[in-house]
Structure formats: structure tokens, C-alpha cells
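Journal club prep — side note

Before the paper discussion, L.F. wants everyone to see what a predicted structure for a comparable chain looks like in C-alpha cell form. Sequence:
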Amino acid sequence: MAGFNGTRDFGFLADGGSGGGGTSPTLLIIQCDSGTNSSRRCGNNNCASGIYSTAFGRCNTSNGCYSTISGGFCNISSGIQTTISGGYKNTSSGIKSSIVGGQLNVASGDYTSIGGGFQNVASCSSSTISGGYFNTSCGLNSFVGGGINNIASGTNAAVLGGQSNTASGISSSAMGCCVVNSCDYSFMSNCLRACNIFGATSLCANAGGTIVPSTSDCRLKENIESYELGLKELNCLQPRTYTWNEKSGNNTCHKQVGFIAQEVKEVVPESVFVTESGYYGFDSNKLMPLLTNAIKELSCEVSCLKKIIYFD
């Protein structure tokens, strides 16, 4: 076989001997390229126009410097040192971005990666999507593990899976269904279960943010004083019935019983806190000392009444 270097390399396959009686030789196109040292060695209608670019498969375009398409159909590898392993109509345009497979995925950020799936977009530097459908990883160094219609938009944010979840806080994580986590350095899910906590009636978070059983050891406490609130303050509290609205993200169908945080704040301010999103929260455990004092006061009054009755 003979050939020469240029925009098209070719040679002849002789089906028979040359000369009289031999079958006419067949022309075989080996590669077609337009970039310096680029190559296209297998498949149909591929284009390798970038410097040292390579394209295999069918109708693929590798026009980025040092870009590679290993197979698939109608893929585009246009960024520097980008890679597409296969799939259909995937686009890898960020520097050193890569797509393993799938369909209609776009890795447009530098150093981004998409493992597969359908219509996923990794648009910010070092963002990663493992797979799934319609997921977006647009935060710096963000990650989506899979699922459907998830968004990781915060720096170092991660959506581990599920559907329609959003992690927008710095180093935030989300998992489940329709979870929106905008709090920095936090994790949110529809249901959180701990398998290493036994015999605990209540839970709290320690200084490192780890969920642990709440403790009440005097060796861990300072500035211990008596608590004075009691029956008078208890009479000021007003129990309410209510239903959650759509904004709360809770079940809106069932009637609830409890307190209003703003009302409790006026009586027992230490039992009320403000969440990262700016809403008031209420810790009912903080009412236990008040209830204890109220019962003690009532008990004292009952004792006094008994003495009066018995005296009479």
C-alpha cells in the first residue's frame, strides 16, 4: 500500500494481481484531517480539525487542540484537551472537560466532567455530574450524583441524588425530593435517620455540627443559677391550632397544634431562635423548667388549701 501526507491519506487494496486479467484495485480512504497532526481513523463523516485532535465514530467533530472523541454520533469536542468517550450529541467545550457518554450533555466549564445521562450541564470550573437527567452543576467545584432535575449552584455544593433538589449554599448538600438548601455548610433531606443513637429522648448538635444525644452533665456546665419563671408566665402562653402554608414546605392539609414563635418570644425569649433563612423557630424543651416551676407553685397552693380545709 502506498500513501502520502496531506489533507487526505489514501492507498490501494489490490483485489487481484496488477496487469492483464487482474481485478481493478479499490481505493481505501484511511484518514481525513485539516489540523496539524490531527487524525480521523475510523467511522464516517468525522472531522478532526484541532492540533493533535482525534475523532472516531460517526459525524463527530474534534476541533479543540489535543481533543479526542473515541466514538459515538454527532459529538463535539471543542475545548483544549477535551475528551468524549461516546454517546450522542454531547459537547465538551471547557478546558480539559470530559464526557463519558449519554445524550445531549454539555461540559462547558473548565475541568468539568459528566459521566453520562441526558441533557446534563456542568458549566462551572471543576463541576461534576455523575449521570441522571436534566441536572445542572453550576457552582465552583460542585457535584450532582444523579437523579432528575437537580441543581448544585453553590461553591463546593453537592446534590447526592433524588429529584428537583437544589444546593445553593457554600459547601451545602441536599438529597431527597424538592429539597432546597441555601444554608452554608449544612445538609438537608426530607428524612434524616441516625443509626448510631440509642436511648436518647432528644438530640442536639455539638460544636462541630454533629448530631448527638443531648447531655445534661454538670461537669459540662458553668454559671448555674435558679430559674424563676413559672405559673405567671405559663398563663401568658397561648396554645394555637393552625395549618402550614405552601411557603413552609410542610404538609398543608392537616391541622396542627402548638405555639407561635413570636408570641412565645414575648414570654420565654430563650426558647425562640432564628433560622438561617430568617424564620423564627421554637424549642419546646426550653419550656420544661417553666412547667416544672408552675407545677411546684400549684402544688404549694394545693398544700395550703388542704391545711385550711383540715383546720376548719
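L.F.'s comment for the group: The mean pLDDT is 82. Keep this in mind when we get to the figures.
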